[in-house]
Structures
1.
Amino acid sequence: MPIYRYYCEKCKKEYKMLMSMKDQDPKCPECGEKMTKQLPRIQVKSHGSSSCSSGNCSGCSGCSS
């Protein structure tokens, strides 16, 4: 089962919970309000197109010479 991040608007707190994909959104453990599921945080690295296209990119292993 995946771990999801949920946020309670009333308490202003974020919780990480182990949930089945079939489970409904949980209620806040502190106040009992329904919480909203947060989108996963995705970090994207970008490089200047001129340095990567010339083969001088040293920022990641994804660029090839």
2.
Amino acid sequence: MTSAQTVASANRGATVGNGTTLWLTGLPSAGKTTLALALARVLRERGADVEVLDGDEVRTHLSAGLGFTRQDRETQVTRIGYVAELLARHGVIVLVPVIAPYQDARDKVRAHHESHGTAILQVHLSTPLEVCAERDVKGLYAKAFRGEISAMTGVDDPYEIPVDPDLRIDTSTLDQETSVAALIGLLLERGRL
């Protein structure tokens, strides 16, 4: 590496921070995407290189054709985890607002990151089911309660609560600004900013 490349690399590292995957897991309508987009704005204002891998968007493109069986959900989580790790390994802060309902799939994503020496932080949005159902951003809870759809996470399909996340946030008791501040605090505490 030339001295110019070394300086450019050092400057880039100082600007973008340390590549990290920050995975926001929780029930549908817990506030994952809203919080990820708000955090992304703040991080970009600080000069960070940030990408948001939203589960719905990834399902439309990278995971088109997958359904909602356990195997398909695990495939979706694994694919997102692979892309997140690849981006994070190259200095990007990757925000992943994805339900990831099963502990074993989350563990596989963590193991993949660790095998590459890439940082991953897991944040559980512990917003209660009743609050998520009231928000019902996509109308899915109402359909599930009426029996119009099945395999709804938290209703008739399990959501395995993370045992030891890096942070828990209940968006029914913390406002967006406070939640974003808590996420920034986590990144700073772990040396990721």
3.
Amino acid sequence: MAKNNQDRKLGVNPAHRRAMLMNLAENLIKHKRIKTTDSRAKALREYIEPMITKAKKGDLNSRRMVLKKLHKNAVQTLFDEIGPVYADRPGGYTRIIKLGFRNDDKAAMSLIEFVDFESGGETAVAKNENEKAE
């Protein structure tokens, strides 16, 4: 009786899916926001939020568990920069903003970003509001 098999398949085989989610997670950690398809953004949110929860703990065991899913540089950034920012936040570390549809294949596009993360720039919501005002 197989239960709790609710992973998003994303139309690729399991090895490709793991590699794709790892690359998306590392790019999100590096750039703090990325533009991708809606289904990939939702899968990425399920993949990265438990890692941020482990980064909040900051202990060695949590770091080793995250190292199984990410490369060393991304783990260091996650534990040193991103984890302390969300130390008192109980969850919901990412935000998905729908951007419409891609022109060539009409795939639903989304912007996934960290919530309340000040990386020296504006948040995507503030940028969109500024563009609409102009």
4.
Amino acid sequence: MHGGTAFANEPIRIGAVFSVTGPAAFLGEPERNTAKMMEEEINKAGGLLGRKVEVVVYDDESDATKAVTAVDRLIKKDKVVAIIGPSTSGNTLAIIPKVEEAKIPLISCAAAKKINLPVKRYVFKTAQSDAIFVKKIYQHAKKNGWTKVALLSASDAYGSAGREDLKELAGQFGITVVGDEVFGPKDTDMTAQLTKIKGTAAQAIVCWGTNPGPAVIARNRAQLGIKTPLYMSQGVASKKFIELAGKENSEGIFLPAGRLLVEDQVDPKHPQKKVLAGYIKDYEGKFKGGVSAFGGHAFDAMKLIELAIRNGKSAEPEAIRDHIEKIRGLWGAGGEFNLSPADHSGLTEDSMVMVKIVKGDWDLIK
């Protein structure tokens, strides 16, 4: 007996690979928590197709080789019907050949557009594509009259994907890139790069990376007394960033994010409000910590699989794949998902808002 429901048959096993430890733990930990919380909620409500759901989670320790090993185990040993994760773009790109070969649907929680462009039959993702965030940043910069930007990007898969989009889309918004610096994901000092940028005509700086690098940049920028407006990517959309950078060093930083971060400031009539409020209440009640955009990606991945199984009345991988692709009008933590054979992420710019860090918290820019 589980949660007052008797289950016959084998459980439906859903695999998950997250960076629960290692440098990307701030992504993977809330993702794991969310996936396990949803497993519990689905089972309490009677499971799926009269079967219990079991989420088998492996920690890839923020390492691509370990992600590949974990996926191998999920497919061959655990016989999962679908996989969610990994947490990072690099680890996702490393496992794609495995899931495509095994014909197991994958819903990644990472953002790089290469994950599903070109479209791959079995690969989906719940994180908005980098290009959507870049457009949001450039629209905001242009509105403020900032047409010269300097870029600071991490040398990993996520950073270089963002850098590509930032350079490629600048012209569309009448923006000129006047500085282009790169940092190593483990670098502990960015004074050299910031000093170079200080010497350019940049009216705004765009930093693309995941913690800890961007937090170092926020601290170094304050130390150097640079007042040029600073944008971060969604790669830092959790309170962990503010904690690492320090409240005073992160003051005034802009970033594009999903509405989850500013749920308390979202119009009560907005169709996403109820979903966000429900997820926050459940997560904070269970884990006593605040939600992040990253846990939201896992929430959406689980929702898509759950809905695909219910709609297709089947837990066979091929049926799950087909029915994920048919999902339209599903409001999740990341926005409204409208998937199709040509679009395996299903989110548009409307899923994003611009936020500003004010007194150690997120402030929605209306």
